[in-house]
C-alpha cells in the first residue's frame, strides 16, 4: 500500500494495532505484539501514545517482544534498543513492565545460545505473535537478519553487515563505535507471526524495496522471504515505492 507520506501511513498502521488490542480486550485475551526500532516506527509509537492519553487506549493486555538488540549492549546505554523503546513508547503507556520483552545485550557469551532458545520459547508460550511490525535495512535485513540469513533461522547472535554499521554510525559517533554483533529474532520467528506490516519511508529505501518485492526470494535479501507469508502488507510512502 502506497501512501502520500509517512505520517499518513503511520496513522493507519497505529489504528490497525489499536483495533487489534481492543478486539483482544473484548475477548479477554492478551495481544502479542512484535515491535521494531529504527526511525521508521517512531510515528506509529507517537500515535499509539496519543491514543492512550487522549482516547484511553489501554495496553494492560499487551505483551511485547522486540526484534533485536545490539550485542554487547547495556540496558541503560542511550544507544540501546531498550532505551529507544522506553523513550518512544513504554514510558508513556500503561503496559505492565513484566510484559515487555527485549533481547538482553548483557547476557554472557556462554549463556547466549540458551538465552535465544528461551526467547523463542517465551514467544511460543505467550501464544505466538499476533502482529509483527517491521522496518527494513538497506541490506534487506528485517530485525537484524542480514544477507545470508536462513529461512528457518531462529533467535540468535549475528554479525552485522558493514552497510548496517555505516547506517548506524551517526547514532554512535562513527562506524567504529557501532557494535559488531546483535541478537535478533530469526527469519522463521518473524514468519510465524499471524500478521506482518513492514514500513519503509524515503528514497534511500526505494532500491531495497524493489529488490524485496519484485525480485526472486533469496537469502541475499532476507526481507524477500516475506513474499510467501500469507498476511503481510508493505506500507510505503511514495519515495520508497518510487522504483516499483
Ligand atoms: C535497524 C533495525 C531494524 C530496522 C532498520 C532500519 O537496523 N535493527 O529493525 O528496520 O534499522 O532502520 P530505519 O527505520 O531507521 O531506517
TrEMBL record:
Stretches assigned to the Glucosamine/galactosamine-6-phosphate isomerase domain: 6-231
Transmembrane regions: none
Domain of life: Bacteria
UniProt protein name: Glucosamine-6-phosphate deaminase
Source species of the chain: Flavobacterium frigoris
Full-protein residues shown: 30 to 273 of 645
Amino acid at each position: 500500500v502506497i501512501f502520500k507520506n509517512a505520517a499518513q501511513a503511520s496513522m493507519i498502521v497505529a489504528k490497525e494495532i489499536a483495533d487489534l488490542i481492543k478486539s483482544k480486550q473484548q475477548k479477554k485475551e492478551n495481544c502479542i505484539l512484535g515491535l521494531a526500532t529504527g526511525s521508521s516506527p517512531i510515528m506509529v509509537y507517537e500515535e499509539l501514545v496519543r491514543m492512550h492519553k487522549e482516547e484511553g487506549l489501554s495496553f494492560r493486555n499487551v505483551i511485547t517482544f522486540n526484534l533485536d538488540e545490539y550485542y554487547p549492549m547495556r540496558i541503560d546505554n542511550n544507544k540501546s534498543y531498550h532505551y529507544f523503546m522506553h523513550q518512544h513508547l513504554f514510558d508513556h503507556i500503561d503496559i505492565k513492565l513484566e510484559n515487555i520483552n527485549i533481547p538482553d545485550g548483557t547476557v554472557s557469551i556462554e549463556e547466549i545460545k540458551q538465552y535465544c532458545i528461551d526467547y523463542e520459547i517465551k514467544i511460543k508460550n505467550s501464544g505466538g505473535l499476533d502482529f509483527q511490525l517491521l522496518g527494513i535495512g538497506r541490506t534487506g535485513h528485517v530485525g537484524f537478519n542480514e544477507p545470508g540469513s536462513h529461512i528457518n533461522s531462529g533467535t540468535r547472535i549475528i554479525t552485522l553487515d558493514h552497510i548496517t554499521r555505516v547506517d548506524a554510525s551517526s547514532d554512535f559517533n562513527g562506524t567504529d563505535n557501532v557494535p559488531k554483533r546483535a541478537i535478533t529474532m530469526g527469519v522463521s520467528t518473524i514468519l510465524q507471526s499471524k500478521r506482518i506490516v513492514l514500513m519503509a519511508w524515503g528514497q534511500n529505501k526505494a532500491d531495497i524495496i524493489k529488490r524485496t518485492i519484485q525480485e526472486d526470494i533469496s537469502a541475499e535479501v532476507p526481507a524477500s522471504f516475506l513474499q510467501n507469508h500469507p498476511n503481510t502488507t508493505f506500507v510505503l510512502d511514495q519515495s520508497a515505492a518510487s522504483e516499483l
